[in-house]
Amino acid sequence: MESILVLTHADETGAALTKASLEAVSAGIELAGRIGASVSIGIVAVDAQAAGAAVASSGARLLGVFGEPFGQARYSTDAAACEALCRAAQATIVLAPGSSRFTRVAAGVSHRLGGFIDTHITALGGTANIEASRWFYRQRIEAVLSRDARPWFLLLDSGTHAAFAGEATPAQVEQVAVQLPLIRTTVSGLRAPTQGAQTIRPDAKLLFVAGAGWTKKQPDGQTHVPEAADLILGFLRGAGASLGSSKSLVDQGSEGQSVLPFLTHLNQIGQTGATPRHPKGLATCCHGEEPHVVGWRFIGERRAVSLDANCGWTRGKADVVYVADAFQVMAKLNALIGSVGA
Amino acid sequence: MQTALHIVVCAGIVPDPLQTLEPITTPAGPGLKNEMVLPAVLDPWAASALYEAAVLAAKAPGSKVWLVSLGPKAKLQQVMMTVAQKVAFELAPIDGPIGGFPDAHATAAVLAETIAKLPGLDRERLLLFGGWESATRGAGVTLQLVGERLGITDQFQGVDQVNLRDDGSFEVLERVEGGKHQVSVCAGAPAVLGWATGNLAEPRNNPQVGMANMRTIMPALQKAPAVKLEANGLSYISVALPKQQRTTRVVKDMSPDEIAAELAAWIGAE
Ligand SMILES: Cc1cc2nc3c(=O)[nH]c(=O)nc-3n(C[C@H](O)[C@H](O)[C@H](O)COP(=O)(O)OP(=O)(O)OC[C@H]3O[C@@H](n4cnc5c(N)ncnc54)[C@H](O)[C@@H]3O)c2cc1C
């Protein structure tokens, strides 16, 4: 019989599990029910008792690694914590959220345990055998795979399972001792790459993508970069959208052209950028070429505004393409949603 | 003055992203149609790592950059014709399978073994670079596994910036959720750094650098050891292109007002 360990970690408070962790807990419970496995939950937190409250009602065995060194995301301490939890649980299947924190360490931990790992799992199927779905070639090819080697670690993409939502009750978390490694790395904190408002909002309902057209010469023979910036920021504010960019547009920064100052490579969507999950996406002044559109794999409804009636979006990549001037459309749209310029 | 660095960059070769890919079944498992003739490039995020390595090495006299790459010898040679013109490095090629479907643990084992045997490499000074994810498997695990095999427990992923200090320590910026960077300070090498885009534009081709590199690259390719990769219990149940091609409505005759109204309704709808 398989036994499942779900690895989870706390958020920046150190005492509450992240949403992605709660999603992994749901996935673990669902999988355990289907294949008839036992399930335990491992918690990495400053205060694992408090963090465990959110999952105590699952009835799973709770194991925790506690203390200040685990308040920060750092390879050496996180790998030691996860290794200790895995050794204590003796599980054959280890599920974990694909957060930046666990993505940094999970493969290393699988190696320490003599196991194997597959990441970016978008679905778990199968009953006799566990079948994991993931994408290859940057969201171009989808595969279902299995492994008969154990322990098998599976990192789940966030947004693929509902978060566990049991009632919070006081938790009995078994403390697992960790031999602390030599700490050579000090985490000093988080830094936003640009000044001003946060433009990347993973929980937004809408992804708004700006393409290089915003900074190109317009029909009047001029560029209108400050106006483009106002329209884009105005829309983000009005619609609460997250801002994505094409590669061509963000690359202008390193090539020394005039550029939208609030955009960085972190906004980039596509082959060498992000693949975010949002229910809707609106592309503007972007050509919709394949290396860009592979980053839209997990965007539900897709619309685009482009001057080019033959752009990539029209070839089965978007639901609706408006062949129009995005400057004009966005000015009107901002007025309608109640945010006029900056 | 900064301490000399020994930077090893792990970088694979991948199909040019503008190519159409079609999965097929081969006797060795899943693969791509015409895989050996598809134009290939150095894996983009790993390529950023190589360019960043060259800039860091240039700041610390006595430093050296190695490029370790596993792939079919003939394809490696093709890709090196361009890559060699970008920055100076010594190539450690391994003749092996191409593509995203072989197991990452097996790849990591071969890479670690190769790195451990690199002549002249001082492991205490080692900065192990690569892309944080490949453009083929996209798993983000290979570097980590190589690091574990080499006993390196200071590891960073999604790196966009490294600021070296004179005492050998460095500040590192890693991508985390919500479009932010986590800032850490590491006491120094050895460390693993899986790079994202970084801050450098692709260097221009420099034929002189190319000629100097090629003097060592060609003999290294001739001697490249051939490897087979273990499956490690990995099997594929299906490998397919996504089916959903959308039926696109192309709207050519609406005014900006009408489009805005339609978009506002769409955005507002649940
Ligand atoms: C190795 C590699 C990796 C890559 N990775 C990525 C990646 O991660 N992400 C990515 O995006 N690209 C990536 N690309 C680049 C990709 O191939 C395209 O070059 C890029 O996406 C084009 O960006 P764009 O559509 O914004 O710009 P352009 O191709 O310049 O298109 C601009 C569009 O704006 C339209 N336009 C101009 N003015 C207006 C207006 N007023 N109103 C409406 N429309 C207007 C034009 O008609 C045009 O369609 C990659 C390429 C390679 C080779």
Spatial order of the strands forming the largest sheet of chain A: 5-9-4-1-2-3-10
What share of the residues of chain A does DSSP label as strand, in percent?
Answer: 25-35%
SS element count, helices of chain A: 8
Please identify the top-level CATH class of the largest domain in chain A: Alpha Beta
Described by strand count, sense and barrel closure, the largest sheet of chain B is:
8 strands, mixed
Order of helices and strands of chain A: EHEHEHEHEEEEEEEEHEHEHEEH
N- and C-termini, Cα separation of chain A: 60 Å
Question: What characteristic shape of chain A results from the CA principal axes?
Answer: elongated
CATH H-level homologous superfamily name of chain B? HUPs
Task: Give a structural overview.
- The complex is a heterodimer of chains A (342) and B (270).
- Chain A has helices at residues 19-35, 48-52, 75-89, 100-112, 225-239, 247-254, 290-293, 326-337, and strands spanning 3-9, 38-44, 61-65, 93-97, 116-121, 123-125, 131-136, 141-147, 152-156, 174-175, 185-191, 206-210, 242-245, 278-284, 299-306, 320-323.
- Chain A has 2 domains: 3-175, 3-Layer(aba) Sandwich (Rossmann fold), CATH 3.40.50.620; 206-341, Rossmann fold, CATH 3.40.50.
- The mean pLDDT of chain A is 95.
- In chain A, the strands form 3 sheets. Chain A has a 7-stranded parallel sheet with strand order 5-9-4-1-2-3-10, sandwiched between helices. A 5-stranded parallel sheet of chain A has the order 13-12-14-15-16. Chain A has a 3-stranded antiparallel sheet with strand order 6-7-8, with no helix packed on it.
- In chain A, α3 packs across α4 (100-112) and α5 (225-239) runs parallel beside α8 (326-337).
- Chain A is an alpha/beta fold and 342 residues long.
- Chain A is 26% helix and 26% strand.
- Chain B has helices at 44-59, 73-83, 104-116, 142-149, 207-222, 256-268; strands at residues 6-10, 13-15, 23-26, 29-32, 40-42, 64-71, 90-95, 126-131, 155-164, 170-176, 180-186, 191-195, 234-240, 249-251.
- In chain B, α2 (73-83) links the parallel β6 and β7.
- The mean pLDDT of chain B is 96.
- Chain B contains 6 helices and 14 strands.
- Classes of the chains: A alpha/beta (342), B alpha/beta (270).
- β11 (185-191) of chain A pairs antiparallel with β11 (180-186) of chain B, so a sheet runs across the interface.
- Bound molecules: flavin-adenine dinucleotide.
